[in-house]
Amino acid sequence: MQEVEMKKGKIFLSVIVFVLFLNSLSWGNGLNLNSLGSRALAMGGAFVGLADDFSAIFWNPAGIAQFKTEYFGFYGTDIMPSGNYKLTVPYPGLGNIAVVNAKTPTKHYLGGLAAFYYPVSGNLVVGIGVYTPSGLGSKWNGEDFKLISANKAYEWGSKVGVITISPAAAYKFNDKVSIGATFNLNYGMFNIKTHGGSTEIPVYPYTLDLGQYEENMNAWGIGATFGILVKPSEMFSLGATLRTASTIKFEGDAKMQYLSLLGLPGSSDLKRDVTWPMWLALGVAFKPIDKLTLTSDVQWTQWSKIDVMKTDFVDPYWKLMMAASGDDKRQMYWEDKAQIRFGAEYQISPAFALRAGYYWDPSPAPDRTMNVLLPNYDFNVLTFGIGYALDTLKLEFGVEYLMGRERTVDYLKVKTDPEWATAMPGTYNMTILVPNISVSYKF
């Protein structure tokens, strides 16, 4: 028996390492990847009021109290964005001239969730999970940006994200009321590559191209998730989840390719505090007939915590230089937003289930801070999936299609209004295809 328990522990540890490795490589577009678990995703991510599978550690930890046996689940996803950015500039006598016509290269951004649960008693269940709650990023072909970057193909891209490790516990007071909580250990990454711009050399009539600019940072932060699940009847359940804000104190370094030609250090250590915002969700699940489950969620995120990101450059020359240019502050001015989600599941037979959903995901980023490195869109999202159960083993497949609304940042507005100075003018479009798979087993 002890040998079996050790094997289970080794399997779960291996999956954790696998998920962490995948997500250290890449991130998809869109900041909250909050459709974790194939079943939850296929039901439009409206899962807070149901929370009855292994993804409950993310959606509502109170749902963990429903598990009566040891339970393991793994979810993997491939985020495939397709975006484009166009910039036209008005020239006197020539009209609008196309300066940039860029498309994102084909990329596969991997994400996932793994969780294991163990019933301590009939009322108390503990567990642990690792998952990717959020990430924002982009990758562009530098050739497309040559006309605005000294006619050279520098790298343009970003990767910002969080991986969370969560020990959890849930307690069932009775058949109607359960509560749960997790401690969240968050590992954050913040990486940016772009053109560093140029500067005038006062002694000579010459403009120096500063070359490639790059930041690489990482750090740890802590937080918690609290949930409650209430089931007044077999047909109806209500849930609520609060995930606390988590401040991640990033540390790393910045590099400017040709800055040393001015006799200045080519790199500097830096620090930046970023607060991952509070998330509050309310959900309901309803079974009008035995085989049909309908769900609906409202999920609110306090994005206003991401207002102005201040950077402390450790090197004194960099500190003065970045303060003088204003690049020691990154204006974001994000706004609090709420998602509206709907889902449905129909149990065709004891083995097969069909699922579908929809949600509206408004962008927290205003036009006045929009740029290609940290793009953000209003998304209409359609979801679909199927599930197959074979005794205690379940296989589930899902797909999510995010349709971003076109965003246009006016060129003249950016050039004439100081409040728009950090925006990149142009027209932005994005769609994202997200296929995924889940495997779970009850021992």
Name of the CATH architecture:
Beta Barrel
**Physical arrangement of strands within the biggest beta sheet:** 1-3-4-5-6-9-10-13-14-17-18-19-20-22
- Could you say which structural class the secondary elements and strand pairing correspond to? mainly beta
CA distance, first residue to last residue? 13 Å
Q: How many separate domains make up the residues?
A: 1
Along the chain, the helix and strand elements come as HHHEEEEEEEEEEEEEEEHEEEEEEHE
Biggest sheet overview = 14 strands, antiparallel, barrel
* CATH structural class: Mainly Beta
Strand-residue fraction? Answer: over 45%
Estimated helix fraction: 10-25%
Q: Number of helix segments?
A: 5
Question: In total, how many beta strands?
Answer: 22
Cα shape: elongated
CATH superfamily: Outer membrane protein transport protein (OMPP1/FadL/TodX)
User: Which whole number gives the mean pLDDT?
Assistant: 88
CATH topology: Porin
Cα gyration radius (Å): 24 Å
